[in-house]
Amino acid sequence: MRSPSLSPSKQTPEAQGGGGASGGCSSKKAEPMACCSNLGLKRGPWTAEEDELLADYIKREGEGRWRTLPKKAGLLRCGKSCRLRWMNYLRPSVKRGHISPDEEDLILRLHRLLGNRWSLIAGRIPGRTDNEIKNYWNTHLSKKLISQGIDPKTHKPLNPNPSIHDHNKKDSSSEIHQQSLTSTYVPFASCTLGNAMISNGDGSNSHDHQFVGTDHHQQAAVPKKDLMRNNVIDEGMIMSISKDGDDDDMMINCCPDDAFSSFLNSLINDDVFNNQHQDDQDQHLDI
DNA sequence: AAACATCGCAACCGCGGCTTG
DNA sequence: ACAAGCCGCGGTTGCGATGTT
């Protein structure tokens, strides 16, 4: 195995045309073949000089305006490339080195809750980037789960028919995982669910949030798509209270990000609690 | 020592969603 | 209300490093 702290950029002189196939960073249909290759912009590994230019510029001017940043910073890169380099490597807060067991555990639990929402997961793990976590998942954790007989996508046992398992096998890690998986969903059973109108601060409202709370946690507005997309909840769980833009709309004046953050915290804590609770019960049964 | 296989990471691509005019 | 532009995300690729034969 080689050291995880690979040299920053692979520092091959001049771009080797890393990454994928041809084509620029063209975005939507309206956006013409804009950046990178088509405009003679550089691609591939970053040099130390480029890193310095980018870091210096962002220190002076701050992040953002990625589209125009390269030109102003004197870089022959597209904005996307600059943003990626900054976010994943140059940002001072980026932590390097091995993922600790604690972090690994957190990633597993968050992935079980959120699925492949790497940016959301990364947001809960200080100093780690979505790219790093995604890579770590793909190269380590998914294989680890598979070797334990767990489907890394669903976090359920790979064997569709658990009845053929030897029930005396107490050590089955997938069994333990399945228990904790089940416990993860328990909090939602007692959730208060309903559609909520979120004030966007400009007088407009959004219907795309779900009102979620438990007996012991503050109710919070969570982007509905974030919950549904990963089967944290499904359509069937949504109560159809649909009131359109009148004064009866439920207004929640809070930042969805903060709410989602605390919501995740509560889920993670629930997860820990339920796992411990389950362990206690198991020990009790073993006696 | 050389050739081949595998691993791990940085970087790219394309798409969707948000913002702005 | 609509269109165009920009940003951010998740999936994928390419390549150097390392391990194995």
Which descriptors would you attach to this protein?
four-stranded mixed sheet, 9% strand, 9 helices, disordered N terminus, 4 strands, alpha+beta, 287 residues, Arc Repressor Mutant, subunit A, elongated, 3 domains, DNA-binding, transcription regulation
Beta-strand share of residues: 5-15%
Low-confidence stretches: 1-37, 162-257
Sketch the topology as an H/E string, one letter per element.
HHHHHHHEEEHEH
- Sketch the major β-sheet: 4 strands, mixed
Radius of gyration equals 23 Å
- Could you tell me how far the N terminus lies from the C terminus, measured between alpha carbons in angstroms? 43 Å
- How much helix is in the residues? 40-55%
Tally of DSSP β-strands = 4
Q: What is the oligomer described by this structure?
A: single chain
The class by helix and strand makeup works out as: alpha+beta
Main β-sheet, spatial strand arrangement? 3-2-1-4
Using the alpha-carbon principal axes, give the shape. elongated
Count of separate structural domains: 3
Structural topology:
Blueprint: H1 48-61, H2 69-73, H3 79-90, H4 101-114, H5 118-123, H6 130-147, H7 173-189, E1 192-199, E2 205-214, E3 217-223, H8 224-228, E4 251-252, H9 256-286
Parallel strand pairs: 1-4
Antiparallel strand pairs: 1-2, 2-3
Helix pairs in contact: 4-9, 7-9
The chain binds a DNA duplex (21 and 21 nucleotides) through residues 1-4, 6-10, 12, 16-21, 23-28, 30-31, 34, 36, 43-46, 64-67, 79-81, 83-85, 87-89, 116-119, 130-132, 134-136, 138-140.
Subcellular location: Nucleus
Region (Disordered): 1-29, 150-178
Biased composition (Basic and acidic residues): 164-174
